Every structure is written in structure tokens, then in C-alpha cells.
Inverse folding.
């Protein structure tokens, strides 16, 4: 496991995989670490943990609830801000789907009540498609107490996602952030990460996306302010955020118009 993660995070992930392995047995295909913790961008006190698991066959409701009770905050306290945990059946992610259908989606942590969803129709699919697209390139398979036991690499476990689907999901993400939290630092950094992918085809952390954006001609100063606000929680002027959004949306529309 990556030694750059704090020891308590490494220990937590090992226990998480162990619990899933013991309960799911041969049903478990693999467990994957996505997000900042998988590409050396984890920051204690700010970052969450994104973990995805793949099972061979669909789970029934009893099995889903049992998995949740194995890994939620009450059963296994998360040392990060929260755990975002998603389980897919193998057929849901290989080949790739424009609207990935999860078996369960759990957000759990020390500072929030559990968010549990067993029905993909109740969630916006762009979150899941973008997580898979980024995780497929930047994520890694996790192993439990036995370091020789882990699933296939993310590029083998998750089907390749067409670029157009990713651009469409970025558009959906921008729409969601504009409607729900336009004045947050997260919305600005998320837009920067999307902008970087639109232009370069490269995924990165949100912070690296913001650093890239600052180097681009015409980048508004709100990006620098957002980098500072990610630690303070300060709200940002919506009008200035929209200046950035206009740039990113325009770039994305141009790519979608030419990307057949």
C-alpha cells in the first residue's frame, strides 16, 4: 500500500478490504482506491476516501444492507472527512455504461449522517461516470492483510469510457455546481479540473487543475482565491465564479461540437 498515506488511513483501508473479503468471499472481484488518496493528493483534514468495489453478480437487498453494516462509520470509523463507497456488479462497469448502475452508494463519516442509496435512478449519474473515468487512469487496486491478493488493475476491471461521455458528464457537473454551490471553492476547483481535461485530455486532482488553470491566458483571479478558500471555507462571489464557468462551458461546448 502507498506509504505516502497516513498510517491510520493505510490501516483503515486494509481493514475495509478485509471486511469486504470476509463477507463477499468469491463474489468480490476487486476493491479500488480512487480520488486524491490514489494519486498523492490526499490532505488530512480536507480529503475524503473514495473506494469502489466490483462484485461478480448483482447483490440482493439483504446482501447490500449487510455490506453497508460492515463498512459504515458505526462499524468501521473513517479517519478521513468521510468515506465515499460504491459497489458495482461486473456487468455494470465492463463494458462501460453511459449511466453506471451501482449496487449501492454509501457516504459515511464522522461529521455526517450516513447517505445510503440503493437505486441509481435517485442519483445523478455524472458523478459516477467521472469517478470511474478518473479512477480507471489514476486509481489503484487495494489489497487486504495479504498483499498478494488484490483484484485486476483498474484499466482491466473498468471498461474504457469514450471521451464524449466524459465531456457530457463534465457539462452535467458544471450545471449541478452552478445550481447548488456556485460560490464554493469546490465548485471553482472542480471547474478547473474539468477545464484541464477538456483542453489536454488529462485528469488531475482539483488542486492541480487549479494550478494548471492559473497558467492559462485569461484565467480569472477567482481561481487563486478559491485555492486559499479551500482551507478557510470562505464563500466566493458568484459573479466572479461565473466568469470562470463561462470560459469552461464555452471550451467544453466547442469540444463537444467537434468530438463525434
Amino acid at each position: 500500500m502507498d506509504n505516502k498515506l497516513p498510517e491510520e488511513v493505510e490501516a483503515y483501508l486494509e481493514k475495509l478490504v478485509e471486511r469486504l473479503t470476509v463477507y463477499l468471499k468469491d463474489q468480490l472481484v476487486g476493491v479500488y482506491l480512487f480520488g486524491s488518496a490514489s494519486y498523492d493528493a490526499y490532505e488530512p483534514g480536507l480529503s475524503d476516501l473514495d473506494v469502489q468495489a466490483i462484485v461478480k453478480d448483482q447483490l440482493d437487498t439483504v446482501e447490500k444492507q449487510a455490506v453497508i453494516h460492515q463498512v459504515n462509520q458505526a462499524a468501521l470509523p473513517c479517519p478521513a472527512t468521510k468515506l465515499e463507497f460504491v459497489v458495482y456488479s461486473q456487468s455494470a462497469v465492463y463494458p462501460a455504461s453511459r449511466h453506471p448502475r451501482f449496487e449501492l452508494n454509501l457516504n459515511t463519516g464522522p461529521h455526517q449522517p450516513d447517505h445510503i442509496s440503493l437505486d441509481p435512478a435517485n442519483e445523478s449519474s455524472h458523478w459516477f461516470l467521472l469517478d470511474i473515468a478518473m479512477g480507471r487512469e489514476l486509481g489503484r487496486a487495494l489489497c487486504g492483510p495479504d498483499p498478494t491478493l488484490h483484484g485486476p488493475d483498474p484499466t482491466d476491471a473498468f471498461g474504457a469510457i469514450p471521451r464524449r461521455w466524459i465531456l457530457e458528464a463534465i457539462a452535467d457537473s458544471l450545471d449541478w455546481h452552478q445550481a447548488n454551490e456556485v460560490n464554493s471553492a469546490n465548485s471553482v476547483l472542480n471547474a478547473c479540473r474539468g477545464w484541464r481535461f477538456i483542453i489536454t485530455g488529462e485528469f488531475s486532482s482539483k488542486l492541480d487543475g487549479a494550478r494548471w488553470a492559473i497558467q492559462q491566458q485569461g484565467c480569472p483571479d477567482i481561481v487563486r482565491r478559491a485555492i486559499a478558500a479551500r482551507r478557510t471555507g470562505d464563500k466566493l462571489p458568484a459573479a466572479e465564479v461565473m466568469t470562470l464557468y463561462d470560459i469552461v462551458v464555452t471550451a467544453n461546448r466547442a469540444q463537444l461540437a467537434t468530438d463525434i
The chain is about 50% helix and 15% strand. The chain has a mean pLDDT of 95.
